[in-house]
Amino acid sequence: MPVLTLGELQARLGVQLQGDPAAEVEAVASLVSAGPRRLSFVVSPRYADQARASQAGALVIPPALTGEFSRPCLIAANPQATFARAASLLHDDLSHPVGIHSGAVVHPDAVIGENAYIGPGAVVEAGARIGPGCRIGAHCFIGANVTIGASCTLHPHVTVQRGCRLGDRCILHPGCVIGADGFGNAWDTDHWVKIPQVGKVELGSDVEVGANTTIDRGALDDTVIEDGVRLDNLIQIAHNCRIGRNTAIAACTGIAGSTRIGANCLIGGAAMIIGHLEICDAVQISAGTFVAKDIRTPGAYTSTQPLMAHADWKRNAAHLRHLDALVARVKALEKQLKKDAS
Amino acid sequence: MPVLTLGELQARLGVQLQGDPAAEVEAVASLVSAGPRRLSFVVSPRYADQARASQAGALVIPPALTGEFSRPCLIAANPQATFARAASLLHDDLSHPVGIHSGAVVHPDAVIGENAYIGPGAVVEAGARIGPGCRIGAHCFIGANVTIGASCTLHPHVTVQRGCRLGDRCILHPGCVIGADGFGNAWDTDHWVKIPQVGKVELGSDVEVGANTTIDRGALDDTVIEDGVRLDNLIQIAHNCRIGRNTAIAACTGIAGSTRIGANCLIGGAAMIIGHLEICDAVQISAGTFVAKDIRTPGAYTSTQPLMAHADWKRNAAHLRHLDALVARVKALEKQLKKDAS
Amino acid sequence: MPVLTLGELQARLGVQLQGDPAAEVEAVASLVSAGPRRLSFVVSPRYADQARASQAGALVIPPALTGEFSRPCLIAANPQATFARAASLLHDDLSHPVGIHSGAVVHPDAVIGENAYIGPGAVVEAGARIGPGCRIGAHCFIGANVTIGASCTLHPHVTVQRGCRLGDRCILHPGCVIGADGFGNAWDTDHWVKIPQVGKVELGSDVEVGANTTIDRGALDDTVIEDGVRLDNLIQIAHNCRIGRNTAIAACTGIAGSTRIGANCLIGGAAMIIGHLEICDAVQISAGTFVAKDIRTPGAYTSTQPLMAHADWKRNAAHLRHLDALVARVKALEKQLKKDAS
Fold first, then answer.
1. What strands lie across the sheet with B242-243, from one edge to the other?
2. Which domain holds residue A56?
3. Which of A286, A301, B61, B157 has its CA 20 to 30 A from that of B219?
4. Which of residues C90, C112, C137 is at a domain's end?
5. A223 in reach of chain B (CB within 8 A)
6. Are residues A58 and A139 in the same domain?
7. Residue range A300-326: mean pLDDT, rounded
8. Mutate to test the interface with A, among C102, C190, C198 (most CBs of A within 10 A)
């Protein structure tokens, strides 16, 4: 991994530098754990004291903190995003291999782009196209006629089933499954008939898919994940869903079939969204929330229960079974009092 | 994939045909996306207008729509199931390979049935028996003494641990794990002792298991999934569960240990069913529902919270902590009014 | 698998024996399914009748049942833990292979301990250290500079990403992913910037990780799972969490980033715990419970909704949207009655 001077970082990140441009950093770290050759960051003046106590050799800071620290600082309007970019430069694995490992199984009719790497045990089937600069990790399975754009990283154990398409710069984490059959069954008298799933999955560019997340292929038409979508681990996206541009979804969330989610949404962990819904752009769904109807207005939505000590919960939750009766009792009281008053 | 005439489809599906038996179709498609060489379907008269606007070359229709369309139609009492069967015929991958790939690792004491396929990187251990016509995908792991019936399809990256048994025609999607140890721990003074899990998993015939779903082996006796069960992705079935015939379970559902679910149940996504319960036949559990007691009467059951705008939720949900007190207040009012009235 | 006499078991388990020390058992079984050469167990006098009816050749019993059964009995203060240990002895796979399978891909700069086994298709990258007596299953991926202690068992299809560390005697089930990137994204004007995740995962000793569970690497510092933690299947542990010693977590649970859970906690299945929380030692979280605030007092906590027949639920749940108004109505009634009374 490279060692960079603050001058180089300033130039490559396009931000201001306060202090010695020849000072070197070799990695990023948190304020607490950083040593003198580490770069850390301060997101707001609220953390100024913590930053002063840090051993970090250099900091990324917001303009409001200019001049506050004696060590070298990169000054950026968005310190978090700037720090993320600095981390990418400092932690870039420059030595990643290129070429097809002797233990990979690549069909002669597959097309592998320039400077791509195909790891040990990876299987690439007929008609698949792997773009230039891709890294296909150990044991990945790339089905027939899959198309993968440029500079994608597939970590080990990723499955991409036949015919699916990925854009550029996608990152797929271990164990995720793109394009397994959707859950389609027709009931016939006394048994299920499998409905073949003949659609595919389309991932846009700059999509990240977490470990062991599953995105099912469409039944007839496609499942679509638009550009810039970020998916955490253990998420289920069912057949024929569409997830809009830049929407980010936290772990353990399930989205049932044919639901369409807009752009720039934030979906908390372990949310559950039923099928055939429309959720508009710029919606925030709280963690643990159950969504069973369309959402047509941007904003934040929640459906969780508050936590209670178990004994309190026992006392309170039982009444939920009789809430309708309770409302009727209140209505009866209101009626009686009104009558008494008249 | 085959091109079929409507006459061939009629004969193989055992349904009525209205129109030219020589007309050809080569794939299935939705009403909206279908072109002239595609077969689509209409499930009820409600979609008749959409069907009229479709470019589909042929349709599967219910008897109530006989004579409504000028293009060729297959007339079937159950259009969805008939369409599913037609799709299976049209999208059958006739070219799937047979034999053991040179990159597979098959123990000499394993038995591989006729016309079976063992993909690159697949590992089949001693004593395993793979039935005729099975397709074992790339990187599958088939443990010692596993028995797999005829015509099963294991997609890439499936794990079947030692001694487990599958019936015929099962379909296992990528990343599913059959027969990992159940979660068994005995507390001893100051640490956990692992309880060895010596049961196995038995899958009946015609069982489908979704991507990254896990079915644990029994602790002492077996975990049993009966014939015709359909499991979606990312489902957890714990040790010693029994899932009855033809029950279908949607994604992200968890079923804790030793719970028995009857036949013909429908379990919605992200349901959570605790352990040691009995759920009778023909129960429908809504998505997102938490089940903590036996269900002895067929029917539909639910436990979810309604979605609210976050501000409304804040106002309302806090009262759940004081529901018992609220009920007491209503009771006090009733008592006082009764006293006042007397 | 070994056949053992009750005398050998008594000596190795350090418990009392009542009956013939030469009697042999060859496996464990449940009371219901046990035959004459099987060992079963009785956890308390409540199951004495069931034990009398069992065909089991021998039993592990608590001291309170001494003399109750005519067949040989091992008498133990903790019958469940003793039975678990007996099962480990009886079901020990004595024949497990040693050495590096010819189909494994081990980097020359990796260090493999004595008596370790590296299965077919396993990949071990540069700088990795595998401890003595480890069993690395088929298709496991061990990233660069990973350190694995002594006597760990990694079942097939496990991924351990670069730099992560495991203690001794860990058991990792198929499909689990240790050290995938945490979910870190910084928003910059109109798109997400990935925040590189440069921390790692540290697993203590005697940690068990279930099938398809994911534990993400830290963003800057590490994600830490302390000694003796037991994790079931399909659990998500996000970046920078710390899970305390001997805490056990059931399947389908999600724990969001930077949350710290104490020692000796029991977390039920499908619990959801949001990020940046502190949960103290000895907390029990019920299955299906949503935790959105710190817990500073040991004890049991719950937040689930009760199950209802769907028709009842429809009647009751709608009122949850108007709970605040209902409370206001009750308050108005109280005020009016107070006024009337004065």
1. B111-112, B129-130, B147-148, B165-166, B201-203, B223-225, B242-243, B260-261, B278-279
2. 4-90
3. B157
4. C90
5. no
6. no
7. 95
8. C198
Q: Per-residue pLDDT for B216 more than 80?
A: yes
C211 → chain A, closest CA residue: A212
> With contacts defined as CB-CB under 8 Å, which chain A residues touch B56?
none
> How many beta-carbon contacts under 8 Å exist across A and B?
224
pLDDT at residue B94 in the model? 63
* Distance (Å, whole) CA C128 – CA A158: 22
User: Which chain B residues are closer than 8 Å to C139 by Cβ?
Assistant: 121, 123, 139, 141
Residue window 117-136, chain C: list those with CB within 8 Å of chain B.
119-121
Q: Which of residues 36-95 of A touch B (CB under 8 A)?
A: none
Global ipTM: 0.96
Same domain, A29 and A125: no
Q: Specify whether C270 is located in the same domain as C294.
A: yes
Q: Which residue among the candidates C155, C157, C173, C239 is catalytic per the annotation?
A: C239
Residues A322 and A224 in one domain: no
**Does any CB of chain C come closer than 8 Å to the CB of residue A336?**
no
CB-CB neighbors (< 8 A) of A300 in chain B: 309-311
Q: For B242, what's the count of Cα atoms within 13 Å in the CB-facing half-sphere? A: 13
CA–CA separation, B125 vs C52, rounded Å? 40
Please check whether residue C275 touches B, CB under 8 A: no
Q: Which of B136, B307, B308, B321 to mutate to test the interface with A (most CBs of A within 10 A)?
A: B307
Query: Do B291 and B334 have their domain in common?
Result: no
Do B310 and A302 make contact, defined as CB atoms within 8 angstroms? yes
Above 80 in pLDDT, residue A94?
Answer: no
Segment B132-148 shows an average pLDDT of 97
Q: Are residues A60 and A107 in the same domain?
A: no
Record the pTM: 0.97
- Tell me what pLDDT residue C94 has: 63
- Is C320 found in the same domain as C218? no
Catalytic residue among B139, B155, B239, B276: B239
Binned at pLDDT 50, 70 and 90, residue A2 comes out as confident
**Is position B319 annotated as part of the catalytic site?**
no
CA-atom Rg of chain C in angstroms: 26
- On whether residue A256 sits in a domain, the answer given is yes
Question: Are B287 and B165 part of one and the same domain?
Answer: yes
Q: Mean per-residue pLDDT for C237-262?
A: 98
- The tally of domains found in chain B comes to 3
